[in-house]
Design goal:
This protein is α+β, with helices and mostly antiparallel strands. The chain has two domains: about 140 residues, Nucleic acid-binding proteins (OB fold (Dihydrolipoamide Acetyltransferase, E2P)), CATH 2.40.50.140; about 260 residues, 2-Layer Sandwich (BirA Bifunctional Protein, domain 2). The relative contact order is 0.09.
Length: about 500
C-alpha cells in the first residue's frame, strides 16, 4: 500500500508540474510569443564544434541551440547548460546583455525547454568553454518534465517504451546507436570493396520459407490473398544470382512470430550476401574479414570484452564439425550411431525430448549440439557440416550426403551467422520442400512451404554459390557490450500497457 501511495504521489506531482508548464505556455501565447509558431532557427555550430575550435572562435559570435539540461539562477546573471546532438555546452546569461524583459522570460524557462542562443565564445573563471549570450529564444516549450529530477532514467521497461526520453537523459545510450550506424556503414564499405551489389527484395511474400520459423500472416485486401512478412530474403537473393548478378547483398528487416528474450525480437535487422562460384569456406573467410575489420575500424581493436568476458576476434577462427564438437564436450561420437532408432534411444537416455516431426538421427545430432555444446563456444568458432534434415537449402557433402556444407558462427555461446554452400540441384530442392510441407501438415508451425517458382529458377540454373546471413542486432550487441537486444534497437517490440 505504501508503494502505491508513493507512485500516486509521483503522478500527482507530475500532473501538477505539467499544469504549471501549460499555464506558462498559455501566458506566452497571450503575449504573442507562442514558441510553436517558430518554424526555423539558424545555428552556426554544434556544441562539440565550439569546444573543438575554441582557439579560432574565442570572442566570435556563434549561434547554438538545444535542450536545457541544467540551469542556475543568480540574481541578475545565470548559467544554463544546453544539450544538442553533439553534446552539451554552457551559456552565461545576464540581464545586462538580454535586457530586463528577455532576462525575466529566460528565468521562467524550464529544464527540457529547447532554446536558441546567440553570443560570443569565451572561457569562464573555471576554464569552461561557454557562450556569452546576447540573445536567447524559446523554440519549444516542454510540457512534461524529464524523469527522476532530470538525473537519469533507470527503469529499463520505461526506457524502451520512451526511447526519446532515454536518449535525452542517458548519453551512453545515444553513443550505442551512433556506433550502430558506424558498424552498418563499415559493413557496407567492406562488401562494396569486395564487389557486392546492394539490392532490395520484397518483405511481403506469398510463401513462408527461407528458414525454419513461425511467420507473421497478413492479408492483401485487393488480391484477397493471405501473405507473410518475410522470414528471410534468401530465395529472392538466389534468384538474382540465377539472373546473372555474381555478388549481391541486402540489409533489411526480417520477421519471426516467436518468443522474445534478450536475444530475440519479432522484427530484427539481418544481412544476407551471396557470391556465385564460391562455397561455405569462402563465406567463413568473409565472416572473419567482416567482423574483425569492423571491430578494428569502429572500436579500434580486435580484442574486445563482452559482459566481462574477453573475446579475440583476430582471424583465423576455429573450425570444427558439429559431430566433433559434440564428441569433444560429451564424449558421444555420432559417427558410431548410424540409425534413427539408436539416436532416439540416446536422446531419451540424456533427457532430450524430441518433437513428433523431428525424430531422425540428424535432428538428434542438432538437439545434442544445442543442448550441450552451444554455451561452451566462447571464442569465435565455425561449427561446420550440419545434418541435412535441419538444412533444407544447403548442398550435401559429396563424401557423406547425410550432412551438408553449412556452418554457423558462434561467439560467447551465441550464434552470429549462418552460411551454406547453396543447394542448386532443383530435384533435390523439390524433395526437401516436400518434406517441409509434410512436416507442416503434421503440425510443425516452423516448417517452410513449397516455393515452386524457386524450383523453376533452379531449373534455369544456379551456379555453385556461397551465401551467408548475419544477425546485425546480435553483432551490434557484441560490439557495443550490450546485454539485451532491446539495448541496440531504438524501438523494440513491447507489450502495450493497456
Amino acid at each position: 500500500m505504501a508503494e502505491n501511495n508513493f507512485n500516486n504521489q509521483e503522478e500527482l506531482d507530475e500532473n501538477h508540474l505539467i499544469a504549471i508548464r501549460k499555464e506558462k505556455l498559455r501566458e506566452l501565447q497571450e503575449q504573442g510569443k507562442d514558441p510553436f509558431k517558430i518554424t526555423k532557427y539558424n545555428i552556426t555550430h554544434l556544441s562539440r564544434e565550439v569546444k573543438e575550435n575554441y582557439d579560432e572562435l574565442e570572442g566570435k559570435d556563434v549561434s547554438v541551440a538545444g535542450r536545457i539540461m541544467a540551469k542556475r539562477i543568480m540574481g541578475k546573471a545565470s548559467f544554463c547548460t544546453i544539450q544538442d546532438s553533439a553534446g552539451k555546452i554552457q551559456s552565461y546569461v545576464s540581464i545586462n546583455d538580454l535586457g530586463e524583459e528577455s532576462y525575466s522570460a529566460f528565468k521562467t524557462y524550464d529544464i527540457g525547454d529547447i532554446i536558441g542562443i546567440k553570443g560570443f565564445v569565451f572561457k569562464t573563471r573555471t576554464e569552461e568553454i561557454s557562450v556569452h549570450a546576447k540573445e536567447v529564444v524559446l523554440l519549444t516549450k516542454s510540457l512534461r518534465p524529464l524523469p527522476e529530477k532530470f538525473h537519469g532514467l533507470k527503469d529499463t521497461e520505461l526506457r524502451y517504451r520512451q526511447r526519446y526520453v532515454d536518449l535525452i537523459v542517458n548519453p551512453e545510450v545515444k553513443e550505442t546507436f551512433i556506433k550502430r550506424s558506424k558498424i552498418i556503414k563499415e559493413l557496407r564499405r567492406i562488401l562494396e570493396e569486395e564487389g557486392y551489389l546492394e539490392v532490395e527484395t520484397p518483405m511481403l511474400t506469398t510463401v513462408a520459407t527461407g528458414d525454419a520459423a513461425r511467420p507473421f500472416i497478413t492479408h492483401h485486401n485487393t488480391l484477397n490473398l493471405d501473405m507473410y512478412l518475410r522470414i528471410a530474403p534468401e530465395l529472392n537473393l538466389k534468384r538474382l544470382i540465377v539472373g546473372g548478378f555474381d555478388k549481391v547483398y541486402e540489409i533489411g528487416k526480417n520477421f519471426r512470430n516467436e518468443g522474445m528474450d534478450i536475444k530475440h525480437n519479432p522484427e530484427f535487422t539481418n544481412i544476407e550476401f551471396y557470391a556465385a562460384y564460391q562455397d561455405y569456406n569462402d563465406m567463413m573467410n568473409m565472416a572473419e574479414k567482416i567482423i574483425s575489420t569492423i571491430a578494428k575500424n569502429v572500436l579500434g581493436a580486435t580484442k574486445i570484452t563482452y559482459q566481462g568476458v574477453e573475446i579475440d576476434l583476430t582471424p583465423s577462427w576455429k573450425r570444427i564439425s558439429m559431430v566433433d564438437a559434440i564428441k569433444d564436450v560429451t564424449g558421444i561420437d555420432f559417427n558410431e550411431i548410424t540409425t534413427d532408432e539408436e539416436a532416439q534411444k540416446l536422446a531419451k537416455e540424456k533427457g532430450i525430448e524430441l518433437e513428433e516431426t523431428k525424430q531422425t538421427r540428424g535432428h538428434v545430432i542438432n538437439e545434442f549440439f544445442e543442448e550441450f555444446v552451444e554455451d561452451t563456444l566462447v571464442q569465435p568458432t565455425f561449427v561446420i557440416d550440419y545434418p541435412v534434415e535441419v538444412s533444407p537449402l544447403t548442398k550435401r557433402k559429396p563424401e557423406d550426403p547425410r550432412f551438408v556444407e553449412r556452418f554457423e558462427l558462434f561467439i560467447g555461446g551465441r550464434e552470429y551467422g549462418n552460411a551454406y554452400s547453396e543447394l542448386n540441384d532443383p530435384l533435390d530442392q523439390y524433395e526437401r520442400f516436400m518434406k517441409q510441407v509434410e512436416a507442416k501438415q503434421k503440425g510443425d508451425e516452423e516448417a517452410g512451404g513449397m516455393d515452386e517458382d524457386f524450383v523453376t529458377a533452379l531449373e534455369i540454373g544456379l551456379p555453385p554459390t556461397g551465401g551467408m546471413g548475419i544477425g546485425l542486432d546480435r553483432l551490434i550487441m557484441l560490439l557495443t557490450d550490450s546485454a539485451s537486444i532491446r539495448d541496440v534497437l531504438l524501438f523494440p517490440t513491447m507489450k502495450p500497457l493497456n
